[in-house]
Amino acid sequence: MNLEQFLAIQSRRDFFRSCAGGIGTIALAHLLREDGLSADVPDPMAVKKPHFPAKAKNVIFLFMEGAPSQMDLFDPKPELRRWHGKPLPPSLTKDLKLAFIKPTAAVLGSPFEFQKHGQCGMEISELLPHTATCADDICLIRSMYSEAFNHHPGQLFLFTGHMIGGRPTMGAWVTYGLGSENRDLPGFVVLTSGVGTSAGSDNFSNGFLPSTYAGTVFRNTGDPILYLSNPKGISKESQRARLDLLKELNEDHLARTGDLEISSRIHAYELAYRMQMSAPELLDFSKEPQSIKEMYGIDQETTRAFGTNCLLARRLVERGVRFVLLMHASWDHHSQIDKGLRRQCSVTDKPTAALLKDLKQRGMLDETLVVWGGEFGRTPMSELRRPDEADNAGRDHHPNGYSMWLAGGGIKGGQVVGKTDDLGLNTVEDKIHVHDLQATILHCLGLDHTKLTYRHMGRDFRLTDVGGQVVKKLLA
Amino acid sequence: MRNVWALAAGIIGGGILLCGQTSDLPAPTSRKVDFRKDVEPIFKARCIGCHGAKQQMSGLRLDARTPALAGGYSGPVIQPGKSADSLLIHRVAGMKDLKAMPPGGKRLSADEIAILRAWIDQGAKWPEETSAAVKDAPVRSDHWAFQPIRRPHVPKPADSAWVRNPIDAFILARLEKEKIKPSPEAAKRTLLRRLSLDLIGLPPTPAEMAEFLADTRADAYERQVDRLLASPHFGEKWARHWLDRARYADSDGYEKDWARPYAWRYRDWVIQAFNRDMPFDRFTIEQIAGDLLPGATVEQRIATGFHRNTLTNREGGIDNKQFRFENTADRSNTMATAWMALTTGCAQCHDHKYDPISQKEHYQLFAFFDNVEEVDIDAPLPGELGPYLASYPQYRAKREALLKEYNVPELQAAWERRMLEAAANPGKWSDWDLAWDCLLKLTEGGDGEKIIRIPNEKRTQRQRDILTDHFIRNYHFAVGQTRYKELKFKELDEKLRALKETYPQLTQAMVIEESPEPQPTFLRVRGDYKALGIEVEPGGLAVLPPIIPSNGKRATRLDLARWLVSPEHPLTSRVAVNWIWQELFGKGIVRTADDFGTRGDPPTHPELLDWLASEFMQQGWSVKRLIRTIVTSAAYRQSSAARPDLRDVDPDNRLLARQNRLRLHAELIRDSALAASGLLSTEIGGKSVYPPQPAGVAELGYGQKDSSGWKESTGRDRYRRGLYIFYKRSTPYPMLANFDAPKANVPACSRERSNTALQALNLLNDPVFFEAAAALAYVVVSAEQTFADRLRLAFERTLGRPPEPRELERFAAFLQKQQSIFEREAESVEISTAKPPSVSAREMATWVSLTSVLLNLDEFLTRE
C-alpha cells in the first residue's frame, strides 16, 4: 500500500524539525479584508464593560516563582542579626508550619543592607538598586499571607484562589470578564524566563472556562506562538490562498447548514492569520531606540532574556493585550541564598525598573497595573542542608508574612502597607490575604470580585473563592 | 530582645480580636438566671434561625435540651459549670480567631454573654422538653432527581409514522404540543459519518460508505449500528468519555509531576469493559470496590485504579496527612459526581447551601474511602509470567551480587538505623531530617516510611527492593555529594536499571486496598483537615435510600457500590443515561450533567429520562443496548441543519426538533485526520505514547531546562489515537489543551467546545496535521490520475462525500493559483514530504496544500 512507501520516504526526512521560520509582512490591504462575520455571533473576546469605571485597563504580573526572600529584599529585620545563629524560643515557633527545616533551626540575619529611597523613604535592599529608584511609584505590601506553604498549591492559590487544580486563573478570569482590546493578538499572554515553574501551565489555565481564555505562551524557542509559522514550503501567499479557499468553503457550508458556529470558525481562522501577520511586528524591536533597549538591559547577557520579556510586555499592553503574565523562575533559595539572590536580582532588577519607567514616560502606567511577587515568602531561620557547610545557608518556605508590590493603574504609590513583627515571623498590621490581593487587582480593573462568577458543577465559582476584600489602603 | 515576648500573643492569635483570651470575656452575671426567662429568649431571638428545628448549621440545634447538650459537629458546645471552656461562649464572643456568632447583623451584647455564662456556670439547667419537639424532621425533598424512577407510559403522538421507538414518542409528543415538526432524516452519507464518529470515533472509510449506500435492505442502517457496536474501536471512543469522569491522567499532577508508567492499565480496563459491554452495574461495582469482591481477580483490582487518578504531591515538606485528606475527599466527591451528579463536595466545610446534604453526610460518604491504601501490584500481561519466573532466580542472584559489590547491605542497615533515629529526633540533624522527608515523598513504587518501619526479615522482597532502590538513589541527602560520589552509587543505580531491563519484568498496576487496621473517621470542622469534629460512620444521605451494611454492622465500600446500582437508587441510572444521551446529542436531557441537584437544570424531557433510566436497568444495564436504542431512533437520525422557524421558539434546540452539529472532541480531530490520511495506527491499548510536540512545551514544567522529559515515540506509535497520548497534567500535549480536553484534576462530565484562533493555527501549521495532509495527498495522487478523481477520493476520505460542482470549481481554481504561486516561488516548493515518482515536486506541493484545506474545514471537524 502507498502508505508504507510514504512512511519509508518520510522517515528519511527530518520532517518534524523543519518548520519554516519567519513570516515577514504582507500587503496590509490583503489582510484587512472583511471577516464576513454575521453580527449575531458572540465573540468571546469582545470588549466587555467592567462592573464600574476602571482605573487600570491592563495588567502585567511579574511572577517571581519560587518565593523570593522578603527579609533580604523588601522587609528589613535588623533584629534577626542579633539572633543570627541562634534558635528562636519554642514559644514563638511552635505554631509554624515548615517545609524542610525544624522549628529549632538557627536564625539567619540578612547579609544585605537596606537604605531609604525616594521621597517616601521606602526601605529597600541593596540588591535592588534599580527598583529602588521607583520607590515613589511602588506600593509595597509587607503583610501578605497565604494559606499554602508548598509551591504548586501556593501558585494555584495565588492564581486561582484555590489550592487544588482545575479552576480558572487570574488572567483567564480577567479576559473572561473584560475581553481584550487587541483583535490580532491573544488577550492573555504568558512570557517565561529561567527554568520551568512548579505549577506549569496551571498558572495560566482556563480551568473550567472555555479554552478561549487560557493564557497563550509566547515562547523563547521556535515559534513565538505555538504553530505560528506556516508549514515548511507554504509561503505567506500560499497560506493566504489556503485561507481564502477555506473561507469560501466554510461559507458555502454555513449557507447549507445555517450554523452560526461556522461563522465563528471563519472568524477564528482570520484571527489566526492576523496573529501570524502581527506577531512579527510585535516582536521586531528594531524600531525601539537604542536607549530603550539599554534601559531594559537587552544589550547585556545577564538581563537579556528577562529584559526582552519586560519590553515585550510593554509592547503587548501598548497594543491592548489585557493581561500579561511574566513568569521568572526560580527564587526557591533553600540553599546558597546569598549567591542565588544576587543572581536573580542581577537578572531582574534593571529590566523591572525599566518597565515601570518606560510605562510611566509613555503615560501608560496610569492604566497598567503592575504586580510583582511570588507565591509566598521565606523563613527568618536558615535552612542548612549540609550542617558542615555553613556558608550554604538558605531559607525555607514561609507563608505567614511576606512582601509583594503593586504599581500603576489605581494604586497609590510611594507607600508601604502592612507590617510584620520584628523577627518577620508574622504579620502584625494590615494583614493582606491572597484573596484580598486578588479582589484588589480585580477592583482596579473595574471588576467586583463577588460578581465575576461562572457556574460550574452546581456552583457559581469566582477567583476569590469565598473570601477576599478589596484593600482600600492600596488604592489611589 | 525587647519585644520578642510581646509578639507571642499576636503570632498565636493574629488579626484583630474582640477577645484574645478567656480573661477578656465579660464576667458571668452574678445573679441566679432562669433558663425560660433569661436564656431561651436569647436563643430564640439570635440562634435558632440557623440552629433550630428547620436548619441545624454545623449540626447544632439550640431549640431543645437533648440535642443542644449533645452539641454539633465540633462536639459539645456547652460544658455545664465551665462557661469559659464552652464553645458556645467562645463563638458568641468571637474568641480565638473564630468568626463571631451570629454572623452578620448585631453581635450579642456583653450583658447577654454574661447571662449565658452564668447559666452554664450554674449547671446549664434546661427543663425537660416534650419529646415531640426533639425529633429531627425526616429529610424529604420534592426535587425531581430524588424521586424514585417510575417507568412512564409511552405517549401516543398523532404522527405515529415518524415514531421508530419509544424515544421518538416522547420527543414527538412534546414537539406536537408546541406545534413543531421534527426535521427530516439526514442524508445517508451524513448518517453513516455521524454514526461512525459517535460510536467508534473514526470517520467511515470510502469502502464502508460505498457498502452502506449500496445496501438497500430495510435494516441497512441497523446493520451498520451493529457493525460499529462490535468494532474494537467502540471501546476506545466510549472509554475516553468515561476517562473524563475518572479524571484519568498519566502523571502525578503536582510540581515534579512524575510519570505514572502504569496508569494505562486502568485506561485499558475501561476500554475492554466497553468492548465487552460489561453491564454498567458491574462496571460500577468493580471500579468502586473491585478489591473487596470475594476472590477478586487482578482485573477487578485494576478497576479500582479509578481511585488512583487522584493527584500526588511530592514537594518537600508536604503534610502527608493533608494530602491523604484531600485525596480521600476527592475520591468521595468524584464518586458522587460521576455516578450521582451530586455536588457533595460542597458540604466539606458546611452543610450544602442548596441541596439536602449535610456536612455530616459528606463525611459519611468520605468515611467509605478513609481507610483506602494505595498499592502497586504485579499485574502480568498474558505471556509475561512464564519467562519472568524462569529467569527470576538468575536476575535475583545478579542483583544481590551487585549490591554486595557496592557494599549496599551494610551501608543500608546503618542508614536505616540512623534514619529512624532522625525521625524520632526531628531538628537534631538537618541533613538527616531532609533525608527522612525525601523517604516520605520520593520513594518510588511504595510507602517508604511504612517499609522502613517493618523489620527487614518481615518485609516482602518487593518492599526490600523498593527501599534499597530508594537508598541507592537518595543516600546523598544524608551523607552529602562528596561521599555519595566516592561510593559510585549513581553508577550502581544505572547498572541495576540496566540489569532490570535485560530480564523480563512483570507489568504493574496501581490499585487500592482496604487498610487492615481501619481508623475511625471524623468530621472536619470548617473542612480543615486538622480540626477533628465528631466521629462518623460510613453511610449515605438521608434523602436517598439507606445503605445497608451487608455484615449487619458497618457498611463497606462494596455496600456503597451495590447501593449505587440498586434498583431503588434514583440517581445512578438517570445520570448514566443522561451522560450517554449527551454524547449522542451534544447536550444531556439534563443539561447540567454534573449537577442533578436543585441548582442544576431540570430535565427537558423528564419522562423520557425516566423511561431511558428504567429501560437501561431492565436491559441489564447494557450500554451497547442503550446506545443502540438511542441511535436507531428517528430523533437521532434527524438532519442537524439549522431551522429558521426554530430560531426564536427553540434557539438552544432543547426540544430536539433536529440533531445538533457538534465539533469533534480533541482526540477525535486527531484521529480523523490520521484516519483520513491512512497514517492512523489502529493498535488498541498499551503504554501511552509521546507523539512529536514542539520544543519548549515540556520546558514549562517544574525545573525543566529541556524537553528530555518527553521521549518522542518512534515508528507507528507516533500515529496512535489521541486517547493514548501521554497526558502530563502540568504540561499537557498542546493539541489536546487547545481543543478543550479536560484538565484531569476533577471529574469532567461534559466538555467545552470552544472555537479559537489557536485551534486554527494548530490545524493549519502543526507538523502533525501537515504530515497527515501530505500522506493524504500521497494516497490520492498515487491512486488516481485525473484532478476530478483525485479530489473525489480526498473528499470521500475526509468528508465522506463527493465534492459538489461548485466545490470542484473552487478547488480547480485553487490548484491553479497554488501552482502559479509555486512557480513564482520555485525555491519554496520544498514542501518536505514524500512523493510518488510519477508526480513532480510542484504538483505534489499543490496537492498537499489542497488536502490540508480539507483537514481544516469546519465540516471535517464537525459531526453533522
SSE arrangement:
The complex is a heterodimer of chains A (476) and B (864).
Chain A: H1 2-12, H2 28-31, E1 58-65, H3 70-73, H4 78-83, H5 90-93, E2 114-117, E3 122-125, H6 129-132, E4 138-145, H7 151-160, H8 170-178, E5 188-194, E6 216-218, H9 236-257, H10 261-283, H11 290-295, H12 301-318, E7 323-329, H13 337-361, E8 368-373, E9 377-383, E10 394-398, E11 402-408, E12 415-417, E13 419-420, E14 427-429, E15 432-433, H14 434-444, E16 454-456, E17 459-461
Parallel strand pairs in A: 1-7, 1-8, 4-12, 4-15, 5-6, 5-7
Antiparallel strand pairs in A: 2-3, 4-11, 8-11, 9-10, 13-14, 16-17
Helix pairs in contact in A: 9-10, 12-13
Chain B: H1 4-13, H2 35-46, H3 65-70, H4 87-93, H5 110-121, H6 166-177, H7 188-199, H8 206-214, H9 220-230, H10 233-245, H11 264-275, H12 280-289, H13 298-303, H14 320-340, H15 359-367, E1 372-378, H16 385-405, H17 408-424, H18 430-442, H19 448-452, H20 461-479, H21 481-487, H22 489-502, E2 508-514, E3 521-524, E4 532-536, H23 557-564, H24 572-585, H25 606-618, H26 623-631, E5 662-663, H27 666-677, H28 734-738, H29 757-765, H30 767-783, H31 787-799, H32 805-824, H33 841-854, H34 858-861, E6 862-863
Antiparallel strand pairs in B: 1-2, 3-4, 5-6
Helix pairs in contact in B: 2-5, 7-9, 10-11, 12-23, 14-15, 16-22, 17-18, 18-20, 20-21, 20-22, 24-25, 24-26, 27-30, 29-30, 30-31, 30-33, 32-33
Key phrases:
heterodimer; A: alpha/beta; Alkaline Phosphatase, subunit A; nine-stranded mixed β-sheet; B: 864 residues; mainly alpha; two-stranded antiparallel sheet; 46% helix; disordered N terminus
